[in-house]
Amino acid sequence: MNYNSTYWRPTSIQERTSNSAAFDKSLQSILEEGQLLSLLLKLMKAKKAMEIGVFMGYSLLSTALALPKDGKVIAIDPDREAFEKGLPYIKKANVESKIDFIHSKALLVLDEMLGEEKGEEGTFDFAFVDADKMSYGEYHERLIRLIKVGGLIAYDNTLWYGTVAEPDNAGLPEFVSKVREFLVKFNELLASDSRVEVSQLCIGDGLTLCRRTC
Ligand SMILES: C[S@@+](CC[C@H](N)C(=O)[O-])C[C@H]1O[C@@H](n2cnc3c(N)ncnc32)[C@H](O)[C@@H]1O
């Protein structure tokens, strides 16, 4: 990671919103992340996907476009209003039928999916996680059971503005520090998890790909 570049320095949180060159760079990186995930979905021939954290549906749209006609993406977010703001674009792209939006916090839905009634264990090809960072550990324990062997889980923001490479929280805002500490531990946990093969990419705000191996 080019940690010394302007983009990755923690100050880029301010720079991203106040400096248009940094914003353009940030936007370009987000687009690259979407393109990469779209490519992977096609290579995997994924049919059943999940997205935790939808917001206005940018990554959801990209996933839906990459799935085949009979593919499905279960999209979970407690913010329906944001999803509905992006819905016209999903409709325009003609992929609404591939999306099942669930208006809820994700943990409740994942636990239900793992219950006997739903029985969705080992049925998903792909999951993209881009929601409340402090719950990533709890999502991981559930997703590892919901994804099929050979399937992929992608965790977004695992570099957290590059701050996971800092030796400590010095000079960081409280919210950034809390999540940084959590993500440092989460990244370590993934690296030592024998159930997955892991690759952490310096794209967007850091994207960790986990392929379920057993
Ligand atoms: C960074 S945004 C997602 C952006 C989206 N993936 C994209 O690329 O356009 C994070 C989203 O996570 C959602 N979120 C927060 N807590 C959540 C939870 N417990 N379960 C599911 N989604 C949650 C927020 O409502 C917000 O819309």
Can you walk through the features of this model?
The structure is a single chain. Helices cover 43% and strands 21% of the residues. The chain is built from 7 helices and 7 strands. Strands 3-2-1-4-5-7-6 form a 7-stranded mixed β-sheet, with helices on both faces. It is globular and about 50 Å long. Bound molecules: S-adenosylmethionine. The site of S-adenosylmethionine has 18 residues, from helix 3 and strand 2.
What portion of residues belong to β-strands? 15-25%
Given as residue ranges, the uncertain stretches (5+ residues, pLDDT < 50) are: 1-11
Any idea what the shape is?
globular
- If you compute it from the alpha carbons, what radius of gyration comes out, rounded to the nearest whole angstrom? 17 Å
- What class would the helix/strand composition place it in? alpha/beta
Largest sheet: 7 strands, mixed
The run of helices and strands is HHEHEHEHEHEHEE
How many individual helices?
Answer: 7
Distance between the termini: 30 Å
Bound molecule types: S-adenosylmethionine
Count the beta strands: 7
**Strand sequence of the main sheet, in spatial order?**
3-2-1-4-5-7-6
Write a concise keyword list for the protein shown above.
214 residues; alpha/beta; 7 helices; 43% helix; disordered N terminus; binds S-adenosylmethionine; S-adenosylmethionine-dependent methyltransferase activity; Cation-dep_OMT; S-adenosyl-L-methionine; Caffeoyl-CoA O-methyltransferase; SAM-dependent_MTases_sf
